Amino acid sequence: MKPAELAALFHNMMILLDAGLSLTQSLRTLADEETLRRHRPLLVSLYRDIEAGGSFSAALSKFPQSFNNMIVQQITLAERTGDLGKSLKEIAKQVEEGNDLRKKVIRRLSYPAVLIFAGGAVSTFMLVFVVPQYEKTYAESGAELPGITKVMLTLGHLLTNYGWALPLVPVAMLFGLKAVRRSPDLSLAFDRWLLRLPIVGKLLRNVAAYEFISVFGNLLDSGFTVAEALRVGGEATRNRAVRQRILMIYTAVVAGARLSTEIKKHSGLFPAMVRQLMSVGEKQGDLRFAIGHMRDHLRKEIERTTAAMVGTIEPVATIGLASVIGGIVLAIYLPMFDLISSTGSGHG
Predict the structure, then answer these.
(1) How far apart are CA 229 and CA 116, in angstroms?
(2) What is the pTM of this model?
(3) Can you tell me the distance from the alpha carbon of 130 to that of 133, in angstroms, rounded to the nearest whole number?
(4) Residue 207 near residue 295, CB atoms below 8 Å
(5) Which residues of the chain have pLDDT under 50?
(6) How much helix, strand and coil, in percent to the nearest 5, is found in the chain?
């Protein structure tokens, strides 16, 4: 399920439960919803499992691609406490907030991505179709070609002869990434490398911290202990390097250490504001209030870092593409100017 569909599912289920419908009746109703039509087999499987005497959490756990461990754990606790509606509301809110933030980041990055793609397409078209036409003209005239023209002609020949291999590059990268992700050690090393990248590393670190803090806060609201919320929140974090460090904090807290003390030991993982707010919240005995401020701070940091990254990419991409296209234009016209000059001097 897409995040928007998942949020809609739990939000609508909460409304139906509040209206007095049973869980199976709610799932049956949602299975007939037009917006969730393509997930009907999944929803039918859920209510059939419950009708057969199974629990809702056990039914959800059969579909880990749609319902992660954090969701299953929250539903499990809600079944024990009998407060399923509240948990569904918290899950829907968390998914919606994460999805909204993801959309904002993608929207910001879409313009430079389109700019680079369009510029690359124009440059490739000129090198493959335009420059070779002038090559024939200059070859017939016997004009001496400047260095930049020779370079562009070589690039054009390479693209003409081997351009078919360009689409294979992203495909090979995708398969390579999947191979890395299948190996726990390689995946951990790759995620560590990502966090060390300039600008991008800071963005990914803040995104991972935001994911963890959001899940951690929701689990505390649902009734989880700090230790259990740490474990489940850590496991819900996608970056393996961040997940490993959070689970190290969990191990230390279970052994009796203070949460704020352990978080301060991992200064590279959480911004100073988050570390300080965690310490204040722990001293005041109100972590949930502090977590709300942490979540807001991290969201703003992610938006600020994304804006800074786009602000860096846009001028670099514009200058780079202008240089390439300008170089192609020079490669086309410099020999023409030399040819006109030599013709004029010959008449003189």
Answers:
(1) 42
(2) 0.72
(3) 6
(4) no
(5) 347-348
(6) 85, 0, 15
